[in-house]
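We treat protein structure as text, and this decision shapes the records that our systems exchange. This encoding replaces a full spatial description with a residue-level series of whole-number codes. Below, we set out a record of this kind in full and without editing:
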Amino acid sequence: MSTVYYTTMRGTRWDYRESVNGRLERMLAGSGLMGRYAKDEWVAVKTHFGSDGAHRVVRPNFLKRVVDAVRMSGAKPFVTDTVRIMGLDYLEVANGNGINHLSVGAPVVLADGLYGKDNILVKAGEILGEIAVASLIHDVPAMVVVSHIKGHIQAGYAGAIKNLAMGGVSSAHREHGWKKGRGKMHCYGEVPLQWDAEVCTFCAQCENVCPKEAVAFKDEKFAYNEKECWACGRCARVCPSGALVLPADDTTFQKSLAEASAAVLSTFKPGKVLYLNFMTEIQPECDCMPSCDTPMLQDQGIMLSDDVVAIEKATIDMLRKASPLPQSVASDRECAPGDDVLSIVNPRNFMLQVEHAEALGLGSQEYELVEV
């Protein structure tokens, strides 16, 4: 049985030690997990920088506490993510969301280079075959995976497994393109995007949100580049009239997340990767979308573990009991206390990713929750 440490977001005493910052520091120090890092060992603090418009990421003050804890162990931390848009632009996004060397107390770097093509192919199981793991994540000896918990259009639930899979893998390989990158997870088993001209309002929201410029409108005609499309589903998600439909193989996608996570973790020695799940400002969508909504669930707290399966199961168990918030997508869907809001907002069997990760030997769903 794995141990999952937990601290609430409630602050009921006017005492720094009882603030979220103070309890996070105590949890990181008291768990003893930071003792696994060696003196002068480089440690990647892997997080998501967000996007220009999606600001509800893990806050810089929390990242700084993680960085400080790593440095107190004698190791050398840096904060990193893989490229979503062109690298220089993505660093500007990180800075705009408050993530920079000054705020987090460590260098902020891109794990797969300015062009997102610095990566190494790693075996990734029956579904993916092999996948392009970001070279910096591949080579660094230790890592803390800092995940902002949220919903997701395809994954349903996005936490540490999704952060490892989509965030540890580059969008494209230098020779094989997206078919060896994170696009392979999106595309496997999918059928092409379908457009219904009769209900389309030509609002062009799909064109604006596409990360690959695979959809466009010319003279009120829909242009679709199937070769470039990696089936991320953003276009269908933002279409207000239902003119776009992307049939998806959810089972294969969920399992591919676990496979990609296993590929990333295979580049580390046992015990060198820790996980922090931040159940704060919980969004219905990924942090890579070009805007964000009001939180759909009440903030629950922060979890820490060395077992990715255990921390995901503990997080999901807690979120299923969390209170839905008014004036959010949860109230739009008429969610009531006790409802599984994640499953209602994004109807996906997201436990498949956790179950498959366990089957691949990444951890156990059996856990003990220790509150700080």
